[in-house]
């Protein structure tokens, strides 16, 4: 009898211990830090992040394009991509434009909460340097000898690159600086060259112009996910006017995209799938187009920080040398 | 028969690549001779009806902005200096009384300095009396202007704000003192803003001619055909390249409606964007949207009337002449305007501020929108693409007639005809030269011709004399040696030149051509009866000519004619309004040629 | 007669005129046609085709696969003093390397060295001295049959500091298993055999390929007004870093620079541990440290990748500062590194007591120096830097390892440098071949790209050099192999990245027609039509002749 009872007690305590162990394991795995990725996200292959942000239009009445690109720049920087891995191309200087009633600032909202220009913006290609040729050279790596590091895209085959372009566009082309255009075929060829030279792991391509979807129609290289603010035949509209500055201050798609990005932190678990749905038709008026057939992973299982953020992997140093043992030869 | 085969073979040899068929030409000529007149008449009437229909809102276009950079109305206006405007106006009225109607320029300059605009300059100009050319009859004036430099821009471009000042002895009772007062208030407001990308020139020109002097001085156009009568100082303070100019006239201190004026010299019009800009702010800021009728033939007619005279409706005409887009904002007053609700200075100031903010956004000269248009109501316009076909139809019978004559008369004696035409032109030039040098050629003869008459009457008399001279000399010349072929040649070439001239003129001043065409087109094509017996034809034309002259005389009267002639003489001398003269006098000479061809 | 004659004469006049008149016109029209068709069109075609110099496409497209399947870098090893030989063909292939075994006896000097020295370190030192005199690059395994060493180390194969390996045992037969383990160590693999291509994420964290690298040593002084740190960096570099860098000169050129940055703080928010009184930086904050500080480090004009070693002296109000590792306990070394970027070391300089809270003014009025000065210990810094440097270039960072002799006299072993050179050689060969293959594929796919003579020349050169480098690598001749491979790499990069390789402007087909039709149609149609008429006339003429 005693043996039975003790046996039962023994079994119960064993079960309790086992249960406790299982619970601890589950809780522990759930509460671990950044190192473990929950099962619902697919493992990413990349080790570093780059961003190429391009504003192609100049003149004061295109203020909103500069505000667009600077807002994305701020978000991307906030989420961790350093300036040395961001190539920012801005075709005109809005902050120092004589028509700007608040000099040295660029705002993306009529309530003028955030000055997206700030005092630590690093523009790599400015003014007339933003040309189709320079852009294609930047992407394919065929820059002229003597180009400084900050103007080169030094990505490797483990880099995830975010490419954002804004400006005026049409069916099959994007207008640069009011005098030239880049066609979707040229862009697709540039990406193919990048793929051949193993310059990217995955690319996320965002474009906010009129008839933007035509820009990603001709892509044929793998691992590209693309989103456009409007389909062919539609115009992308601006969001609102800042009546104290007197210009349209931001475009609709970028406005809602930013609204979403403001809620993302470096350790956020929001997905790219959520980002792709960020501007429904009632908000954007134009239809947002997505191209996902070239992308190997399911965007609903990809973290948004895979493209917008950059967290460095660190290794703690566990040993140091005993210097006294070293005698120089 | 043989002749035609020869011609046919000759044509065959002309080239391997073309092969005309002479049979077709004959058929065409027969068609033209038979049905050409009726067809021409139909075209003429269709053109007139079409033009009238264009005034209807269903058949013309609504106004829109073509220049993306303007961004009109996006920025909120913050002008709050209406109080200062009123104070300045009161001060100016006081000065006006003190100086007995002619405020000296240094007072204006002092005003500018008070406002903080230190870069000022005075410019003098003189104009001699065209008829007497006596020194005692010279008029003088002085312009005052100040330049507000753009603080953060390179100053390569500028805009002009012109509020002309009319001193008392210029016979204009409205002196625009309120306009200058509002301009001072705006100058003060503008000086405190940081967002100017262009220099702003605040100009107080003396009378309308002052603007002409200023523009010519600033653009350094020192020597042209008017230098003998119109002289001015060099302008030393230069602003940047002038992109646009806005003129502002207040007819009284209390105005009840605002109007934009934009007719330039010779029918030139400013870029439609500028006109629409000003109109937008007038409607936006002040007027409740008025009830504009759907069809505005009356408005179109008054527009065309204004444009056809070629006289500018304000100082903007002088700016336009030198390639600077310009409009005038006029505050119009009416009886008991003070009792009703006058337009507040605040509203007027904001309209001007909004206009200048929009112009500030410009990157290039205004070039995107139309330069040739007809305007009915402020929100609709007729572009050149819409109005040119009806005008072409109205003038078409002239060209058709010329073609008919050319094609049907083989062996037209072209050389004699051409020489005659050149002779006609020589006479026109001679006439012009006579007018130019009136005083020392004709004056001695004519002051005694009609004793006691004024000099101006003599002008008219001399012109009539000249015309008569022309006709007589021609008649004498042509009395001998007149062949049917020569007459036909003159007729044909005159028609051709008339048609060409009128078509070309229609590009610049469509209104003038409409009025001329409506009268002349039937006159020279339908009223020329080849088939009448000679004597009857002679008397028919003599009758028509006398009716024509008689009607003109009765309608205008001698004084009217004198005024007419004097005005246009003056205008063409001083600032080149010559299209009217060209249109009527040139056309008239050609018509004369036509008649000569038929009279003798 | 009068009536008839004119008719007849006119008709004969007709025929003669029709025949004679067009002869000169016929010649003109045909000359136009000749110029246009025979001269104009070929000229236009030639000037609008994309200029392409012929390239060795076959080689470009197949070299990479060839390397992948067949490249085996030779590593000659000599067994000295053993009695037997290993079975097999005298070579062993291990994941891309081919060890070639040779056997010989030990010479008298070598015997002396091995058996007469005091301990293993002594043996090794002398062996190193001998090697440096003879500049011998061969790996040698010595049989060390000494009982005392056997007692000390057990049966082990121990790698020395140079190219000597000591087989400690009691039998002079070669034990296969021990040799296998040794071979893996020699090529830097872990215990499992792993294929050394870049599909492994860990491998991709090695240094990127470049001819040279920059090393930047920075001292960050956050509050110089309270604590001003200085360091004798020149001495430190000369004593500790330079020897290492010199040894690595076979591998790559390293340029060393240093700087001191004031008023730069690290983006950390340390928490005070009340128990220990230490300010602790949690592990999660570490990755966010680098981005803000990186912009303050200068970026040179050089194109070489840079390795940054930062030494951060803790500010006085956060003293002492310690990093926590991922288990939450304090990290003794207080340092961490970021692969491909560099390392950070947090140095706790002793803050003078009582000066933490005094204001500057009061300090100045006392006539004292208003801040404390501290000389950073170069030994501490270098200890960390050297270790982190080893890790960054791809060597193990363990100071004590099984089967490897401890560091004496240097922080880099010759065979480790060999290992790096071999890895790099492999990398160079593969990358160059890959670049050429990419270029070949690209030129196939995008027909708009111009290929100039310079590019053609570089490609030829690269292909040639690659083939030769392959030969040298197979034989194990590292120096020549690396030199040729480096040149081939440079050439292939120049060829691929040549600025003239830009695709010409793309014109959609309808735009091409829109440009050419207005040019050629107005000229072409009349000429062709007149040709037709000429032919018709010629036929008629020949018919007429026939009829006559």
Automatic annotation (TrEMBL), chain A:
InterPro entries: GPI_transamidase, Peptidase_C13. The keyword tRNA-binding does not apply. The keyword Signal applies. Gene3D superfamilies: 3.40.50.1460. Pfam families: Peptidase_C13. Keywords: GPI-anchor biosynthesis, Signal. Pathway: Glycolipid biosynthesis; glycosylphosphatidylinositol-anchor biosynthesis. Residues 1-33 form the signal peptide. Belongs to the peptidase C13 family. This is GPI-anchor transamidase.
TrEMBL record, chain B:
The keyword Transmembrane helix applies. Pfam families: Gaa1 (PF04114). The keyword Membrane applies. InterPro entries: EF_hand_dom, Gaa1. Residues 83-118 form the EF-hand domain. The chain crosses the membrane at residues 36-55, 384-406, 455-478, 490-508, 514-530, 542-566, 578-599. Keywords: Membrane, Transmembrane, Transmembrane helix. PANTHER family: GLYCOSYLPHOSPHATIDYLINOSITOL ANCHOR ATTACHMENT 1 PROTEIN. This is EF-hand domain-containing protein. It comes from Orchesella dallaii. The lineage of its organism: Eukaryota, Metazoa, Ecdysozoa, Arthropoda, Hexapoda.
From TrEMBL, chain C:
It holds the Pfam family PIG-S. Pathway: Glycolipid biosynthesis; glycosylphosphatidylinositol-anchor biosynthesis. Residues 7-16 have a biased composition (Polar residues). It is found in: Endoplasmic reticulum membrane. The chain crosses the membrane at residues 513-535. It is a multi-pass membrane protein. Its main location: endoplasmic reticulum. Residues 1-22 are annotated as: Disordered. Coiled coil: none annotated. Keywords: Endoplasmic reticulum, Glycoprotein, GPI-anchor biosynthesis, Membrane, Transmembrane, Transmembrane helix. InterPro entries: PtdIno-glycan_biosynth_class_S. Belongs to the PIGS family. This is GPI transamidase component PIG-S.
């Amino acid at each position: 009898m005693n043996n039975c009872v003790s046996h039962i007690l023994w079994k119960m305590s064993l079960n309790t211990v086992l249960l406790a162990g299982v619970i601890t394991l589950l809780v522990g795995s759930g509460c671990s830090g950044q190192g473990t990725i929950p099962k619902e996200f697919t493992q990413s292959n990349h080790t570093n992040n780059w961003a190429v942000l391009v504003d192609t239009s100049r003149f004061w009445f295109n203020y909103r394009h500069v505000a667009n690109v600077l807002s994305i720049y701020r978000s991307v920087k906030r989420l961790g991509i350093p300036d040395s891995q961001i190539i920012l191309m801005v075709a005109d200087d809005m902050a120092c434009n004589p028509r700007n009633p608040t000099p040295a600032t660029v705002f993306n909202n009529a309530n003028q909460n955030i000055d997206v220009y700030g005092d630590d913006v690093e523009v790599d290609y400015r003014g007339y340097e933003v040309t189709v040729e320079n852009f294609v050279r930047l992407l394919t790596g065929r820059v002229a000898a003597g180009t400084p590091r900050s103007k080169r895209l030094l990505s490797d085959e483990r880099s995830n690159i975010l490419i954002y372009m804004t400006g005026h566009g049409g069916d099959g082309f994007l207008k640069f600086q009011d005098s030239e255009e880049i066609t979707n075929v040229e862009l697709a060829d540039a990406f193919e060259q990048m793929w051949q030279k193993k310059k990217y792991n995955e690319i996320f391509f965002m474009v906010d112009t009129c008839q933007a979807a035509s820009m990603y129609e001709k892509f044929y290289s793998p691992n590209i996910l693309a989103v456009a603010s409007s389909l062919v035949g539609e115009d992308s509209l601006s969001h609102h006017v800042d009546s104290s500055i007197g210009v349209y201050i931001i475009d609709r798609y970028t406005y809602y995209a930013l609204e979403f990005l403001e809620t993302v932190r470096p350790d956020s678990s929001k997905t790219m799938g959520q980002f792709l749905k960020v501007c429904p038709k009632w908000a954007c008026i134009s239809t947002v187009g997505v191209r996902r057939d070239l992308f190997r992973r399911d965007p609903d299982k990809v973290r948004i920080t895979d493209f917008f953020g950059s967290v460095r992997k660190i290794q703690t140093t566990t040993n140091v040398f005993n210097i006294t043992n070293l005698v120089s030869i | 028969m043989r002749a035609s085969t020869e011609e046919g073979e000759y044509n065959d040899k002309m080239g391997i690549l073309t092969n005309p068929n002479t049979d077709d030409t004959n058929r065409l000529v027969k068609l033209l001779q038979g049905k050409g007149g009726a067809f021409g008449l139909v075209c003429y009437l269709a053109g007139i009806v079409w033009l009238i229909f264009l005034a209807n809102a269903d058949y013309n276009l609504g106004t829109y902005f073509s220049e993306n950079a303007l961004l009109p109305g996006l920025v909120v206006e913050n002008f709050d200096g209406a109080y200062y405007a009123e104070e300045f106006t009161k001060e100016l009225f006081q000065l006006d009384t003190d100086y007995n109607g002619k405020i000296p320029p240094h007072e204006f300059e002092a005003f500018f300095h008070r406002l903080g605009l230190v870069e000022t300059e005075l410019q003098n100009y003189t104009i001699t009396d065209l008829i007497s050319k006596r020194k005692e009859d010279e008029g003088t004036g002085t312009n005052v202007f100040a330049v507000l430099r753009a603080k953060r821009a390179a100053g390569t471009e500028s805009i002009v704000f012109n509020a002309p000042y009319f001193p008392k002895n210029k016979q204009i009772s409205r002196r625009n003192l309120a306009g200058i007062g509002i301009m001072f208030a705006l100058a003060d407001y503008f000086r405190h803003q940081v967002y100017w990308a262009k220099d702003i020139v605040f100009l107080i020109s003396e009378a309308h001619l002052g603007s002409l002097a200023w523009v010519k001085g600033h653009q350094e156009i020192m020597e042209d055909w008017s230098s003998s009568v119109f002289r001015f100082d060099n302008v030393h303070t230069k602003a940047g390249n002038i992109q646009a100019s806005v003129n502002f006239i207040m007819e009284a201190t209390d105005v009840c409606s605002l109007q934009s004026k934009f007719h330039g010299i010779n029918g030139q019009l400013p870029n439609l964007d500028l006109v629409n800009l000003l109109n937008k702010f007038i409607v936006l800021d002040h007027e409740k949207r008025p009830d504009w009728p759907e069809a505005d033939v009356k408005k179109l007619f008054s527009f065309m009337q204004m444009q056809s005279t070629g006289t500018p409706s304000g100082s903007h005409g002088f700016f336009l002449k030198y390639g600077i887009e310009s409009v005038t904002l006029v505050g119009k007053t009416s009886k008991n305007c003070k009792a009703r609700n006058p337009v507040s200075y605040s509203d007027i100031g904001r309209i001007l501020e909004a206009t200048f903010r929009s112009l500030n956004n410009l990157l290039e000269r205004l070039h995107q929108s139309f330069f040739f248009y007809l305007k009915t109501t402020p929100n609709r316009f007729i572009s050149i693409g819409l109005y040119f076909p009806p005008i072409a139809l109205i003038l078409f019978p002239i060209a058709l007639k010329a073609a008919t004559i050319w094609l049907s008369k083989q062996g037209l004696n072209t050389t004699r005809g051409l020489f005659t035409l050149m002779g006609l032109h020589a006479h026109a030039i001679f006439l012009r030269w006579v007018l130019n040098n009136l005083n020392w050629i004709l004056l001695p003869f004519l002051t005694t011709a009609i004793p006691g008459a004024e000099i101006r009457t003599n002008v008219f008399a001399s012109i009539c004399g000249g015309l008569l001279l022309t006709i007589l000399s021609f008649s004498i010349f042509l009395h001998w040696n007149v062949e049917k072929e020569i007459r036909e040649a003159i007729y044909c070439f005159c028609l051709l030149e008339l048609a060409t001239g009128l078509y070309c003129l229609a590009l610049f001043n469509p209104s003038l051509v409409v009025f001329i065409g409506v009268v002349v087109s039937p006159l020279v094509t339908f009223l020329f009866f080849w088939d009448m017996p000679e004597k009857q034809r002679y008397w028919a034309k003599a009758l028509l000519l006398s009716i024509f002259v008689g009607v003109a005389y009765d309608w205008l009267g001698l004084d009217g004619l004198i005024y007419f002639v004097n005005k246009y003489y003056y205008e063409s001398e001083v600032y080149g309004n010559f299209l009217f003269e060209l249109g009527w006098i040139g056309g008239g000479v050609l018509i004369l040629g036509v008649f000569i061809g038929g009279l003798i | 007669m009068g009536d008839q004659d004119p008719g007849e004469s006119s008709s004969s006049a007709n025929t003669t005129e029709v025949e004679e008149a067009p002869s000169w016109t016929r010649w003109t029209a045909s000359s136009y046609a000749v110029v246009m068709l025979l001269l104009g069109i070929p000229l236009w075609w030639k000037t609008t085709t994309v200029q392409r110099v012929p390239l060795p496409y076959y080689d470009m497209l197949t070299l990479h696969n060839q390397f992948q399947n067949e490249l085996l870098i030779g590593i000659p090893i000599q067994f000295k003093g053993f009695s037997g030989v290993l079975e097999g063909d005298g070579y062993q292939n291990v994941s891309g390397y081919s060890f070639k075994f040779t056997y010989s006896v030990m010479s008298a000097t070598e015997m002396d060295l091995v058996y007469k020295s005091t301990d293993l370190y002594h043996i090794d030192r002398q062996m190193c001295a001998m090697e440096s005199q003879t500049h011998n690059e061969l790996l040698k395994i010595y049989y060390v049959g000494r009982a005392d060493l056997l007692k000390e180390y057990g049966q082990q194969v121990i790698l020395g500091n140079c190219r000597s390996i000591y087989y400690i045992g009691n039998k002079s037969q070669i034990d296969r298993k021990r040799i296998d383990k040794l071979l893996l160590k020699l090529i830097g693999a872990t215990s499992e055999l792993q294929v050394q291509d870049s599909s492994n994420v860990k491998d991709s964290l090695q240094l990127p390929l470049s001819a040279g690298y920059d090393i930047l040593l920075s001292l960050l002084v956050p509050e110089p007004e309270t604590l001003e740190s200085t360091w004798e960096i020149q001495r430190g570099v000369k004593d500790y870093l330079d020897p290492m860098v010199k040894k690595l000169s076979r591998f790559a050129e390293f340029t060393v620079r240093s700087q001191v940055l004031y008023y730069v703080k690290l983006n950390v928010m340390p928490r005070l541990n009340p128990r220990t009184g230490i300010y602790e930086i949690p592990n999660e904050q570490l990755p966010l440290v680098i981005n803000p500080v990186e912009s303050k480090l200068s970026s040179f004009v050089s194109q070489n990748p840079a390795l940054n070693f930062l030494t951060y002296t803790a500010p006085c109000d956060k003293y002492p500062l310690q990093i926590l590792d991922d288990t939450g306990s304090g990290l003794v070394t207080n340092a961490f590194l970021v692969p491909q970027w560099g390392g950070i070391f947090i140095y706790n300089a002793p803050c003078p007591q009582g000066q933490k809270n005094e204001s500057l003014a009061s300090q100045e009025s006392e006539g004292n120096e208003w801040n404390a000065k501290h000389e950073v210990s170069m030994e501490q810094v270098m200890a960390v830097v050297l270790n982190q440097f080893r890790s960054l270039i791809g060597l193990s960072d363990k100071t004590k390892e099984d089967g490897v002799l401890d560091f004496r006299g240097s922080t880099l072993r010759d065979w480790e440098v060999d290992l790096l050179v071999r890895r790099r050689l492999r990398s160079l060969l593969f990358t160059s071949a890959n670049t050429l293959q990419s270029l070949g594929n690209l030129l196939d796919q995008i027909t708009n790209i111009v290929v100039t003579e310079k590019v053609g020349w570089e490609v030829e050169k690269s292909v040639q050099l690659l083939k030769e480098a392959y030969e040298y690598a197979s034989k194990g001749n590292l120096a020549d192999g690396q030199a040729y491979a480096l040149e081939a790499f440079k050439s292939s990069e120049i060829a691929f990245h040549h600025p003239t390789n830009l695709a010409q402007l793309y014109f959609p087909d309808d735009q091409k027609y829109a440009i050419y039709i207005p040019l050629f149609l107005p000229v072409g149609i009349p000429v062709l039509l007149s040709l037709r008429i000429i032919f018709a006339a010629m036929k008629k003429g020949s018919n007429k002749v026939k009829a006559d």
